[in-house]
Amino acid sequence: MPETTSEFDRGIALTPHPEEPGRYDGELGEGWQIGGGVNGGLLLAFAAHALALEAGPGHPHPLTVSGTYVSPSRPGPATVRTEIMRRGRTLATGSAVLSQDGEERLRVTAAFTDLAALDDEVATTAVPPVLPAPEQCIGIEHAPKELIAQAALLERMDLRLDPATVGWALGQPSKEGRIQGWFKLADGRPADPLSLLLTADALPPVTFDLGRPGWAPTIELTVHLRALPADGWLRVSHATRNVAGGYFEEDCEIWDADGRLVAQSRQLAKTPR
Amino acid sequence: MPETTSEFDRGIALTPHPEEPGRYDGELGEGWQIGGGVNGGLLLAFAAHALALEAGPGHPHPLTVSGTYVSPSRPGPATVRTEIMRRGRTLATGSAVLSQDGEERLRVTAAFTDLAALDDEVATTAVPPVLPAPEQCIGIEHAPKELIAQAALLERMDLRLDPATVGWALGQPSKEGRIQGWFKLADGRPADPLSLLLTADALPPVTFDLGRPGWAPTIELTVHLRALPADGWLRVSHATRNVAGGYFEEDCEIWDADGRLVAQSRQLAKTPR
Predict the structure, then answer these.
(1) Model confidence over B92-109: pLDDT tens digits?
(2) How many A/B residue pairs have CB atoms within 8 Å?
(3) Choices 3.40.50.300, 2.40.160.210, 3.40.1050.10, 3.40.630.30: CATH for A7-115+133-270
(4) For A109, which of B105, B133, B207, B267 is 20 to 30 Å away at the CA?
């Protein structure tokens, strides 16, 4: 792999297995840790990367990616075994198993297409989150050191949170169930559909804004990729409306610099105690 | 199977294969057709039923079910092959392949739990849709005959749509991208987590309300089941906010008679031409 590769590309780098078709091997890096495990968005991108390599010409980009998290992952070697269910004219569908030492971590199903070939119509009625300029938002230089120590992931990104949604860092959560801000990869790598899978799970759990700090293990995460993102800052919002029974849903929207809603995701996670 | 079984239970009835562990056979009924294919929610329930039978004691209910639709299904025999990835203390995860004549129709991954054992806390901030009483809503007796002819599915349910969101039936769509109403199974079978999987995909596509009639093939559908539904009418809302590039997302909420948000789903579907 060339030395110029970005942190994210190194994070999802894969080597095809010489003897087992559809199998790819890689390494889950320590730099993507969060609370002892590896970030769920990075895992989703790792598995989707393997499927993208298998989906073949005409289907270079994920359109939908659904992951069910089977067991907690940790930094170290990881294997993805892929299966392509169908290669159609505009869509290919596939499934992938991400495992470590023979133990399954994540099961993914996905549909791939060519996002550059979608029709031009945009009739989106959703509106992007209103944010202060990035330089008026809160970067991780202000984050508590204990948080960074548990979340090496945060050093891989330039995240600028809306001051209105970071009261929780000062013990004053808004209680609205919303966290939003600006997102870029720290090393300047441009966003693409695979990196958006990371972005969809990169912010602190929205439950922080409800006064419930602590990690929130993901049960299931589905991301829809709706357009190729333009270069520049992404606007990201996380919201929840149904905290109940020990679980909550987290809806994420990712808007690009051209004002396009490029990705929507929803996850179900365990509510921190 | 007892003759008293409901239409829905017959629709998802399965026979374990005598020689192949984890395999179940059944029949996709003509009564669940929509536009020539079989309703995607019924397919999801059919596959999840097989997984529920395999998940074992302690995990009787689906918590999350994600389906990627591989090829169009049709009435007739169908097979589900299941694989349980992990049986934990509170969660079991599994994957299922639904096929007909050896051709894959649907790939499902799911997590199962005991919804009756969830903790009691409900801190939901979402609010249920405001609807006129069922008797002031529009039943399928008012639907165009051509619609019913293409959607036998509608006869399996007692669906009462909010008059404010059925202008499309008279050529006057609201253009708000919302369809909502009351839902019950026509034969009075009480709702449960498996029937909610059907309910999540049972209303006409929300694009009808945008003045775009026509069927909208589902690419991916994920449903979160958040509580056991109380007996009685369900309130169901469908909404979309991102119609672009030939696809749209459809968010569904299902509220039970006790005012609990019992299921949330999102699908990506092709926008009708």
Answers:
(1) 999 999 999 999 999 999
(2) 168
(3) 2.40.160.210
(4) B207
